Amino acid sequence: MTRKTKDRIMQIITYFFSSFSLLVLLAVIIFVFGRGFKVLSFKFIGGNYNATIINASKKPEASSLGGYSAPDLEEDEYFSGNWGVALKDSLDTEHNRVVVVSYLDSKSPLNLMKDNYEEDKIVGIKEDYQVNIISGFTEDESYIAAYGKDGAEDIVLKLDQMSQINRLSAYHGGGGIRGSIMTTLLLIVMTLIIALPLGIGAAIFLNEYQTENKFTTILRSFIDMLTGVPSVIYGLVGATVFIPLSQAVAAARGPNVLAGAFTLAVIILPVIIKTTEEALRAIPDSFRSASLALGATRTQTVFKVVLPNAWGGIITAVVLAIGRIIGESAALIYVMGTTIQDRISVNSQSTSLSVHIWRLMSGESPNLDASCAISIIILVVVLILNLLTKLISKKLVKYH
Predict the structure, then answer these.
(1) How far, in Å, CA of 35 to CA of 48, rounded?
(2) Which residues have CB under 8 Å from 65's CB, separation 6+?
(3) pLDDT digits (tens, 9 = 90+) for 332-377
(4) Is 20 exposed, middle or buried, given 0-12, 13-18 or 19+ CB atoms closer than 10 A?
(5) Whole-number pLDDT of residue 179
(6) To the nearest 5 percent, what fractions of the chain are helix, strand and coil?
(7) pTM
(8) Contact at 8 Å (CB) between 275 and 317?
(9) How many Cβ atoms from other residues are within 10 Å of residue 123's Cβ?
(10) 238, 260 in Cβ contact below 8 A?
(11) Contact between residue 139 and residue 124 where contact means Cβ atoms under 8 Å apart
């Protein structure tokens, strides 16, 4: 076999494996976008996860039933002249079929209903509420029930036969990821506040103050080892150490966001230390010598000459750390819990976007479409972070 033939074979093998990797990546992206893009909406991104739910009943006066004028209806809307309400078929944030209240007369009995769980509480449905169940009795005391899965037309037909509602179950909103987005942003800020001073300080100590010896060699070996520790082990440590610490500091109860920030700070410390140290090493020794020759102290040289010129590398470390925070899930399950919250507090449980995906996929009926929609958001953020890292690195190399 000639040398030219061998080179050709190696090129073909190289192209094959490169193409295979590219195809796998494209397959993942196509699958995620194909399943999740239809779910993405402002309501999904900015809405609450937990819905507002009412369970009520109504036995109206005979004079309040009937005689309601229908508004201008669209083709998919159906109006109950008996109860003064219009319903239509729609899709929720997860593109499941639902029945929605599109119009409610101001004098409709459905505006003032008795809560089935609190007798003295008055509740009512409103426009955009999603109807789950309506059941009641006709004038001859026959029981009748309508369900959201049956469609708006069927519900309206049965409503017009009812003279009394003994149960109306409806809800508004729900299925959104606003709380998880806010938790992720809060985690990023809190984690960086904890980890950046420690990581940058350690890098300055190792590169600027400590000479190469057995101690620094061992210390760097430990830092490298921390990079390869599985995140689930960090979660166990965080549950053992940081949850009790946060309970003492912030009066938290059980897993909480503060404990998650402490745990993530430990996880990203090796990334910040190594990246910052490389940035410090990239600064020419002539900068340090010139500063010292002009009478500056070593500390002044480090903080007024070396560190400002290494900001590009430090920003790169921050960007890489943010990417790790967004993508982390295993450790946070232990220290933050898996309860999806709409109201965010540092001393209570909550979920990041990654843990939100885990929660949606861990039930008896996994919600693949919503999970893929959240994955799209994470992929876009990670892509932007990678582009920023390359841009910063390119400028840093050009500078030197």
Answers:
(1) 21
(2) 82, 83, 109, 163
(3) 999 999 999 988 889 899 999 999 999 998 877 788 888 999 999 9
(4) exposed
(5) 93
(6) 60, 15, 30
(7) 0.82
(8) yes
(9) 19
(10) yes
(11) no
